[in-house]
Amino acid sequence: MTTALPLFPLNSVLFPGLVLPLNIFEQRYRALMRDLLKIPEDTPRRFGVVAIRDGRETAQTSTGLPESAHPAGTGPAAGFGADPMASFYSVGCIADASTIRERTGAAGGPAASGASGGAGADTGEASPEEDEAAGDGPGYEVLATGTTRFRLHSVDAGGPYLMGEVEELPEEEGDGAGALASGVLRAFRGYQKRLASARERTLAAGQELPDDPSVVSYLVAAATILDTPTKQRLLQAPDTATRLADELKILRRETAVIGKLPSLPAADLTRDPTSPN
Q1: How many whole angstroms separate alpha carbon 257 and alpha carbon 170?
Q2: C-alpha distances out from residue 223 to 6, 13, 184, 193, 234, Å
Q3: What is the DSSP letter of 204?
Q4: Is residue 271 pLDDT above 70, yes or no?
């Protein structure tokens, strides 16, 4: 069974149970947030996060282009080519926006990208639709949480933002997930200690890690420093046991590699699932 869901493409992978902060300024995603705000607060405000395989998270600016050029960020598929479906990975994660806060004051980004706080933004006279047409209007600070994986079947670029036809994916445990989770937690502890040593930091004492195999699998996938294709592979694993077995190999390999490196410059830059949008 499939359902239609707004899409939010990112250059990172969202996992179920993980928090996703977003800073919204592009016109297409402002339109999405306005529509989500129309949903009652006691009802999930859901959208689908998909990792970008080939494309840009934000649309290119139109600085220096002729006046007849299409304004930056106004097309729902801007940055993703003629076939957005081909630009995204086929498995994503549904996000539930628990907080959507309109940003006030100075612009949070370049005017060409549709940032809030532009001329006339505080007059109170223009409707949201008129602001949208002018490329102005408020930006938003959003806090969402990953909930459920989905498979993306098709992408519709006919509206103000991308819509996807998606099928929710159940989380199957698989054989031996419990034992694998225990092994992954031990390996993850070793990885954390080696990482802290490489950064010349101390590991925080008293950290409690979950014991539910699926929660362990997603937490470790999100917390380990990996590239997007590897994280995507973990997200779309057929069951928890397969994901944990893959993580065990990855953790052992990464721990060994870290032990041979003199330092890890800017490693934190690969860990935060935030969007400049």
Answers
A1: 34
A2: 26, 11, 13, 13, 12
A3: P
A4: no
Strand runs (DSSP E) across the chain, as ranges?
A: 3-10, 19-24, 46-51, 91-103, 139-156, 163-168
pLDDT of residue 7: 98
Task: Please identify which residue in the block is written with the tokens 């592979």.
Answer: 233
pTM for the whole thing? Answer: 0.78
**Quick check: helix, strand or coil at residue 215?**
helix
CB within 8 A of 276, min separation 6: which ones?
Answer: 23, 57, 58, 109
CA distance from start to end of the chain? 31
Give the Cα separation of 178 and 195 in Å (integer). 25
Contact 240, 171 (CB under 8 A): yes
Can you give the three-state secondary structure of 123-159, one letter per residue? CCCCCHHHHHHHCCCCEEEEEEEEEEEEEEEEEECCC
- The DSSP secondary-structure symbol of 42 reads T
Range scoring the smallest mean pLDDT among 45-54, 74-83, 100-109: 100-109
- Residue 134's φ and ψ, nearest 5 degrees, are -85, -10
Task: Dig out the tokens for 212 from the structure.
Answer: 């539910």
- In angstroms, the Cα distances linking 49 to 92, 160, 225 are 6, 17, 20
Q: 174, 170, 151: which is closest to 243 by C-alpha? A: 174
Average pLDDT on 21-25 reads 95
